[in-house]
Each structure stands twice: as structure tokens, then as C-alpha cells.
What we know:
The complex is a heterodimer.
Chain A: H1 10-17, H2 19-23, H3 25-63, E1 67-72, H4 87-91, E2 97-105, E3 111-112, E4 126-130, H5 134-138, E5 142-145, E6 157-160, H6 162-167, E7 178-181, E8 184-192, H7 199-202, E9 204-208, H8 209-216, E10 219-222, E11 225-228, E12 233-238, H9 243-254, E13 262-265, H10 267-279, H11 283-310, H12 312-320, H13 325-362, H14 370-397, H15 400-405
Parallel strand pairs in A: 4-9, 6-8
Antiparallel strand pairs in A: 1-12, 1-13, 2-4, 2-12, 3-7, 5-8, 6-9, 7-8, 10-11
Chain B: E1 7-16, E2 22-32, E3 37-41, H1 48-55, E4 63-68, E5 71-72, H2 78-88, E6 89-92, H3 104-109, H4 119-132, H5 148-160, E7 166-170, H6 178-193, E8 198-202, H7 205-209, E9 213-218, E10 221-225
Parallel strand pairs in B: 3-8, 3-9, 6-7, 7-8
Antiparallel strand pairs in B: 1-2, 1-4, 4-5, 9-10
Helix pairs in contact in B: 4-5, 5-6
Amino acid sequence: MSGRSHRLGFEDGLRVASVGLRARPLRAGLSALGIAIGTAAIVAVLGLSSSSQAGLLAEIDRLGTNLLTVEAGKSLTGEDANLPVDAPARISHISQVEQLAYTGQVKDEDVYRSPLIPVENTGGLQVRATSLNLPAVLNTGIARGTWLNTATATVPVTMLGSTAARQLGIDRVFPHERVWLGNQWFNVVGVLDSSPLAPDVDNSALVGFPAARRYLGYTSVVGSRVEMGPPNSIYARAAQGHEAEVQAVLAKTANPESPSQVNVSQPSDVLTARAAAAGAFDSLFLGLGVVALIVGAVGVANIMIISVLERRSEIGLRRALGATETQIRSQFLAESVLLALIGGAVGVFSGVMATAVYASAKGWMVVIPAEAWTGGIASALLIGALAGLLPAMKASRMPPTAALRTA
Amino acid sequence: MSAESVLSLEGVTKVYGEEPPVPALRGVSFSVEAGELVGIVGPSGSGKTTLLHIMGTLERPSEGVVLINGTDAALLDDRKLSYLRAREIGFVFQQFFLAEHATVRENVADGLLYAGVDAELRYQRADEALARVGLEDRSDFKPTKISGGQRQRVAIARALVGRPAIVLADEPTGNLDSATGASIMGLLKELNADGATIIMITHDSELAGQLPRQIRMLDGRVTSDTGAKPATGSMAGGRDQ
Lengths: 407, 241
């Protein structure tokens, strides 16, 4: 016999700490609920912002960050400038440019569902002539139908951008689906997926350059010859790692005479900035989660104080059976921590589930930052310890005789 | 006071409060040998419950010495005193104090929870103790599903499970009808015959009259002590190991 009290083993300690929870599960559940709601809110806010960021980053990754856009800017006098007709050919000679596509906006033409639509109801849609490799360069998929080819590029047919198709009320492509474009019918051959790197394409009805020249009068005059219309957006894929070099020479290459009339941009920058913004969590909801946690902590403290008063005879009995003051204090502290931990675990689980459901509905990858769930569990632990401290002290200081006289 | 006494009190005084002081015990002295069955009898307010708490080291005397198995309780801190209670003293209460959500077997095994005994051995001892009080077939019942007399038997088994030097029983039949009370008394006598040292508190003179030794109390003083007699059929140092 060592003459001093033994510590309880883990299993006995857990059993003793869960006495109150097992005896009154409903009460324990309700007081853990506050903690659960707070933790769930915090985990879900952090999880959703991370998942939406991950979703955007994955999208950027898929689209590639090496796309550079060359657009016609303004002339010195403030008019819309055009890019030279031979700009795409010159840019394709830059050795680090791997792929290149271009479109030219047919500024005087609009697209309508039918000739009965008033001309001013353009819906903000554009008509663009396009090179045939546009979807490949932009990494844009074909939602419906087929993309233009060398034959269809010469006849009155059009491919619709995703927004344009929605505005025109075309969600599938029937054999004789057509739209009113430039005072004549154009057959619709297909609809593109959305193309985040080139939002203008989404808003456009796309036709081949030869068709634009023949049916829409989209031409330019070079010297004395009449040629196809000028491009005003050029999309160039630079070799990975050489984006900056290519970007530096693009303006001069596109328009050597007046490089200042050319705008060069890297559209993935915009998306990356948007992703960073999405990753910034919603501080309002995070704040609400913290408030719920604090309310939950008060609830746990309240329940623990009531529990100590109700269980005086149990405390007295345990002292009679040989429990030390420390063991009584540990029992109630552990019970409070256990209560908060159960709440925290349920909260983390619900937060993760909410994130998973929402993120998969949005098609994002489910990302729960480690800080979210470790923080949730750790704050539950801390709250349990703080809320249980006072009741545990009260329980351990209760004289065993007073505890036994009641009941 | 002999060195072999399992319990000995000398000049124990307990005063509650300060303004005005209320004396509950005024110089109580006696000692109990191993294997005795002692009744402490007195009307309510005579100080017997205070005496039980002091004998059980749940409370410290204002003055005087309490020796448990030769150890001076006043010299022990909370941890050592708690361990002493865990190993050497078993309590039986009038209100049983059983955990309702736990089984009979778990309640009994918890008698050893704070004595540093492995769970396996605790349950083995609990089964033995339950067999001793005749409840081996109720071990998986919850206390709410058994009768009052059976509950008190469970509480007695819990007190005995650690084979303590002393069992302190506070009005063990107080909540039971007379027939059930008589059977509990029979059980206590049997356990005493097997070697357990039992000190029982009661206000019932008739009940106390059945016991081999009676200490009568009034107003915090011992008024009579029939003195230590060898308990029937007891062997010296009746604690079985």
C-alpha cells in the first residue's frame, strides 16, 4: 500500500466523466448543441470560402495561366482603333507563342431571336467573326452542336456563346434552329460552354471570317485590295514560363506603327484576384459563429453548476469511497470538457457536411482547412475547460458531510 | 487503547460554528477491536452522525485523536486520507446512494474505484461480494429494478468489496420495513461472524439490543458502553486477505 491515492486510468476516468452525460442525455445534448452550432458555423464559413477559392483556382488551372489577350485600344483622338489585319500573322512568328486565335467584332450588326424583335433590343450581344481554332486556344468546350469548320465558316451559320444562347432562349440545337443576324437568317450550329478567360466570346454570336465578309460586309482595305475584316481581339498562348517576355513584345508586334493603341492583358490575373477575394471568409458569419460559441459556453457552465448542486450526494459518496478533492475536481472538469468536445465534434462534422454538400453542388473541390477543424475542436476544448472550472472548484470544495446530509 | 485496535478515539470533540459555538461531540473516547460488531445508539441530536463522519474521516475533530489501524488521521493530507478511506473504511448509508444508471455489479465494483485496483479485479471482487449478500443473480439489474432491501444489500456489498478494516453503517435499516430490516440485520451479523468489523449507528434501542456491544450516546457524550466482547465465532484479526 503506497499510502496515497491512485489516479484513475483513462477508461475509468472517461466513465466517471460521462456519468452526468449518460444519466441525463437530453440535457447534455441540448447544452452541447450551442457549442455545436457555433463550431459548425465557423467550420462551414472557413470551409466554404476555401472550397470556393479552390474551385476558382482549379478552374484557372484548367484554363491555363499562359493566355495573353491583345485588344484594340483607343487612338490618340479617342476613337476605337483597329488592329492591323496582319497582326495575327506577325504575332504567330514570336517563337514563344504556341497557339493563337482571334476574333473581330462586327460593330454594325446585332443578333436577334427573330426579325420581329425591335432593333434596339440587342440584349448587349455582339456579332464576332472568329478564327476556327478559338475553342482550342481558349480551352472552351462545346456545349451543344458542332463548332464551325472551313465549310461552315463560309455560309450563314453561327455558333453562340453561352450567354448569347441563354439570352436568345436557345438551350439546345435543333436542325433548323436559326437567329436573325444582319437582316437575314443564320442557322445555329452549336452553343459554346462559358469561357471565363474571354468573357466577350460568351456574349457573342460567332461566324466565320469568310461568312462575315460575304454576308455582313466585314472587310478592310489594305492598299488597294479588299480583304477580310480586321481582328480586334487576339488570344495567344505563350510557352509556359515565357508569358512575361511575350507580353513585353506583343503590343509592338501587333501594331508596330502605334503600339500605344494596343491593350495587352493576362486574363487569368483577373480570375486569380477573384479567387483571392473568394478565399477571404465572410467575417459576419464567422462573428456569428463566435457569438454562438460563447452562448454555448455559458450554457455549458450553467448546466455544470446545476449538475454540481444536484449531485451533492454523488460527490459525498465518491468522497466516502475514497475520491480526493483533485479527483472530484477532475471529474467535473472532464465532464464539462467532454460535453464541449461532443458539441465541437458534432459541429465540425456538420460544418464539414454543409461544406461538402454546398461545394459538390457547385462542383468545387471540398477543402476544409486544417485550421478550421483543429480550431473548432481546440476552441471546444478551451470552452469546456473554462466553463467547467468554477463548477469543478465548487464540487471539490464541497465538504463530504454536507454532500451526504442532503438527498 | 491497545495497539491492535482498528479504531480508537480519544477525547474527540467537535464544535460547529463560532457565534455561538454548538458542541456536537464532547470528549468521546472508545476503541474498537478487529472483528467487533458495535451499535452506537442515541436519540437524534445526540451526535451519532457527527461521530460516524469523524470515524469515517469525512470530517476532522475539533480536538482529540482518531486512530485508524494505528494511523493518526490528523497527520494525513486530503490525498492520504482519501486513500485511507478507499482501503480501510466501508460506508453503508440509510439512503443507499446507488448510481441509478449503472448496474448493480458496476455499483459494487465502484467501491474499489479509488483504491487503485484494476478493473478486472474490481469486477471479480464485486461478483464475490454480491454472492456474499445473496444477489449474484441481480448483478446486471439497474438499482431501480430491485427492492429496497436488495438495494441496501448492494450498498453493503459495495462497502465490503474492498475488504475494509471497518464498515460504518448509518441507520442501515432506517428506510426499510421491519421484516426487510431484520434480514439486513441478519446479514450484518453473518458478515461479522465471517470476520468483518462493523460499527452501526441507530436510534432504535431494540435493534441495538441485538448487538454484542452497544455504546449509548446523549448530548455528545458516551453515557454507557457495554464494552468489547469477543464476537461470536470470530477469529482474531478477522480481516480476510
